[in-house]
Amino acid sequence: MTAAETYRHRHGCHGAADWLWRCLFSCLLVCLFQPALAGPMPARGAFLVASEDMNDPNFSRTVILLISYGEKGAMGLVINRPTTILPRRIIPGVEGLSRYNGPMFFGGPVMLDRILFLWRGAEPAGESEPVFGGVRVSANRDVLDSLASEPTDASRLRIYAGYAGWAPGQLDLELRQGGWHVVAASEDLVFADKPGAVWKQLLPMAEPLTAALVP
Hints:
- The protein has 215 residues and is of the alpha+beta class.
- Helices cover 26% and strands 26% of the residues.
- It is globular, with a radius of gyration of 25 Å.
C-alpha cells in the first residue's frame, strides 16, 4: 500500500467514525430536547378545553369530547353549544323525535349535514360505539329513533350537527402550541343542564399541554 493509500485509508476510517458519532450525538440531542406533551394525554373519552386565547370562532370557549384519537387523526363533538333548533325540524324520518324536546347542538364545523348523537344508559340494539363510562356515540337513525321513542330528554340524549376533525398530527401540534387543555371527561358535564357554563367550569381545572424535556 502506498503512502497516499495509507493516508486515505486511515483518514477515511476516522471520517466514517466521526460521522457516526455526530449522528449518534444528534439523535441523543433530539431525544433529550424533543418537545413532549406534559400532563393528561388526548384519548377517546377525554375533554379538549379551548384555551382562553383560542381565536378561531368555531372553537372559541368550546369543550370537545374526543370520540376518536389515533395515528389517522382525531374527531370530537363540541358539547357546550346548543342551538335553538329542535332536532325534529331538521332530521326527517325519525318519528321518535316528535317526543324529544332537547335542542340540536353544534357538534363542530365539519360536515354540518351529518348527524351524530351521544347518550348514556342501556346499550340499544344497533350500530354504536362506546366513548367512555356509560356514554356511547352513533350516527345510525334507527338507533336514534329507538332512543327517542322512549321517554328521554337532553339529560340522557344529545344530538349534534357536524363534528370537529383533525388530520394526522394536527391536534398534537395545536396541543403543543397551547391551544387546548386536556381534561378527564364526566358524564354529568357531557349532559349538563347548563352546557353554556361548562367551559368556565372546566377552565380553572385545566392546565395547557406544553413542551417539556423528556427525562
